[in-house]
Specification:
Bound molecules: ligand 7PJ
Strand content: 15-25%
Helix content: 25-40%
Number of helices: 9
Shape: globular
Structural class: alpha/beta
Order of helices and strands: EEEHEHEHEHEHEHEHHEH
Number of strands: 10
Radius of gyration: 17 Å
Strand order of the largest sheet: 8-7-6-5-4-3-10-9
Distance between the termini: 16 Å
Length: 286
């Protein structure tokens, strides 16, 4: 099984060649109800200040979201989501040297975010049927995070069922790469993400983490989001505020297994774990 070698990612004015030091995607939720930081960054100045701090801590991508996708979260209107995210992106795009991704389910929000200066569309609903969003990504030459989810956020955790979660996620990636290419989105624009916690039991999440290296054969950068997620709490009996060590273990493991982008709330800590893991990997003897 391979590791990523000479894989390019194109995201508008940004280009990355992997392998390279893994990127931490710092999270800013401009929402009143996100499960871990909901309500903290609803005010524009607070959101912007938080992002600048994440970049200072070493974030290589900033992921802006205006609608919580946590299990059971209530949908937000497009107007409200636009009101939350567009000013933040407008204000940041000019001054950041790292790409901004927009975490949204809605093509209209993605369009406005790209117009405001975002470079990557983070699509947790990449299992969608409607190609409108992909055409926007193609037109903009933006990066695209193709995340696996079974179902939709409102109901995805009710009873997730797979015969073989690793095989099914791999097949999803291959099928979507083909559909994306049919819509004009080049392979070199796509990041693949197994979607930890999105229509998955604790066992499914662990199986995906254990086999994450197998997805490197698709020769695309892999993204993993584990930060503060409930499977860590369920496995270890840890409250939301006490899950950082569990998430950091996943981050170190993932990078050792070939993951190139880690989505995290706790950027400084995640960067340290990743840089340490990479330093050891560079000296691995057996
Ligand atoms: C993820 C995400 C993830 C990607 C969220 C949370 C829920 N985007 N957006 N991957 N998770 N690409 O942060 O727990 O795992 S929202």
């Amino acid at each position: 099984m391979g590791t990523i070698d000479k894989v390019k990612l194109r995201a508008r004015q940004f280009e990355f060649t992997f392998p390279r030091p893994a990127l931490v995607m710092g999270i800013v939720n401009v929402t009143p109800d996100s499960f871990s930081d909901g309500g903290r960054f609803l005010e524009l100045p607070a959101a912007v200040a938080h992002v600048l701090q994440l970049v200072e801590q070493g974030a290589g991508i900033i992921d802006v979201g205006g609608e919580s996708t946590r299990p059971g979260a209530l949908p937000v209107s497009e107007a409200e989501e636009l009101r939350r995210v567009v000013p933040v992106i407008e204000q940041l795009a000019g001054q950041l040297k790292v790409p901004i991704s927009i975490d949204t389910l809605k093509p209209g929000v993605a369009r406005a975010a790209l117009a405001a200066g975002a470079s990557i569309v983070n699509d947790v609903a990449a299992n969608r049927e409607d190609p409108a969003l992909w055409r926007l990504v193609a037109e903009a030459g933006a990066g695209y995070v193709c995340m696996h989810m079974q179902g939709r956020p409102q109901t995805m955790q009710v009873n997730p069922v797979y015969t073989d979660v690793v095989r099914e996620v791999g097949e999803f990636f291959s099928e979507r790469l083909k559909r994306l290419s049919d819509c004009g989105v080049g392979r070199d624009q796509v990041i693949l993400d197994p979607g930890i916690g999105f229509g998955k039991s604790v066992a499914h999440n662990l199986q995906l983490l254990g086999a994450v290296r197998s997805f490197t054969t698709l020769a695309r950068p892999l993204l993993l989001g584990v930060s503060r997620k409930s499977f860590i709490g369920k496995l270890l009996g840890a409250e939301l505020a006490a899950r950082l060590p569990g998430a950091l273990a996943c981050a170190g493991w993932a990078v050792a297994a070939g993951v190139q982008i880690v989505r995290a709330h706790d950027v400084a800590e995640t960067v340290q774990v990743i840089r340490m893991t990479e330093a050891i990997l560079a000296n691995q003897k057996v």
